[in-house]
């Protein structure tokens, strides 16, 4: 299993940092749909995710330590089809505890660090910087003026809890309309279902 290390940032002006990121690399725009499942007896979860072209099933196990990096062990498998995989998981006793949608803008920086702008219903846009080490993450962070002040140890679950939403069991967490940040930068129709 691969050890994922990432820093998360909240409560910033997404356009300001997006404009800086565009000078460092090509943006890849993705709309994800995911189904999330509990793993009995583990501090982790299964995530089935699709962008409409690629579908993957990932096991994520939380790793707790004293660093300021969010860490999880993960193993990912490519699947043929989102809906067929849901049916397969149901056959072996797994029921999705939540179905969620979000937009992601991904940049590869310095060939070993990934920076994403994740826009979620209700909690807005956050940034995650993922790399092989805290040092690699911090080198990228320094290229984004003032970004360090928006660093948080809060999880996605924590951020939704602050909005009185239990994301773990949100049956259909989706957008009522496409967020302006996405429309402005990608010209996406304001109806998120089109």
Offer a quick outline of the entry:
The protein is built from 5 helices and 9 strands; from the N terminus they run E-H-E-E-E-E-H-E-E-E-H-E-H-H. The chain has 194 residues and is α+β, with helices and mostly antiparallel strands.
Please tag this protein with its features.
alpha+beta, single chain, 9 strands, 5 helices
Biggest β-sheet strands, sense, barrel? 8 strands, antiparallel, barrel
Helix/strand/pairing class, anyone? alpha+beta
Note the gap between the termini: 36 Å
Strand arrangement across the biggest beta sheet: 1-5-4-3-2-6-7-8
Per DSSP E runs of 2 or more residues, the count of β-strands stands at 9
Query: Total number of helical segments?
Result: 5
Descriptive account of the structure:
The chain is α+β, with helices and mostly antiparallel strands and 194 residues long. It has five helices and nine strands. It has helices at 14-22, 82-91, 134-141, 156-161, 180-186; strands at 2-9, 28-38, 44-50, 55-63, 70-79, 98-109, 113-120, 124-131, 151-152. The protein has an eight-stranded antiparallel barrel. A hairpin with a 3-residue loop joins strand 6 and strand 7 (113-120). It is globular and about 50 Å long. Mean pLDDT is 90; it is low at 190-194.
Topology:
Layout lengths: L1 E8 L4 H9 L5 E11 L5 E7 L4 E9 L6 E10 L2 H10 L6 E12 L3 E8 L3 E8 L2 H8 L9 E2 L3 H6 L18 H7 L8
Antiparallel strand pairs: 1-5, 1-8, 1-9, 2-3, 2-6, 3-4, 4-5, 6-7, 7-8
């Amino acid at each position: 299993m691969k050890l994922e290390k990432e820093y998360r940032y909240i409560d910033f002006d997404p356009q300001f940092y997006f404009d800086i990121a565009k000078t460092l690399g090509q943006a890849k725009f993705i709309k994800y749909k995911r189904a999330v499942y509990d793993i009995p007896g583990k501090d982790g979860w299964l995530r089935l995710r699709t962008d409409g072209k690629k579908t993957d099933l990932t096991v994520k196990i939380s790793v707790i330590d004293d660093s300021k990096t969010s860490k999880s062990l993960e193993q990912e498998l490519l699947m043929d089809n989102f809906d067929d995989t849901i049916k397969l998981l149901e056959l072996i006793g797994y029921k999705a505890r939540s179905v969620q949608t979000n937009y992601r803008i991904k940049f590869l920086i310095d060939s070993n660090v990934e920076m994403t702008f994740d826009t979620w219903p209700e909690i807005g846009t956050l940034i995650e910087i993922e790399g092989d080490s805290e040092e690699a993450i911090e080198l990228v962070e320094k290229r984004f003026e003032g970004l360090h002040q928006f660093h948080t140890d809060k999880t996605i679950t924590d951020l939704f809890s602050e909005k009185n939403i239990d994301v773990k069991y949100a049956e259909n967490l989706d957008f009522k309309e496409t967020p302006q940040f996405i429309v402005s930068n990608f010209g996406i129709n304001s109806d998120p279902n089109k």
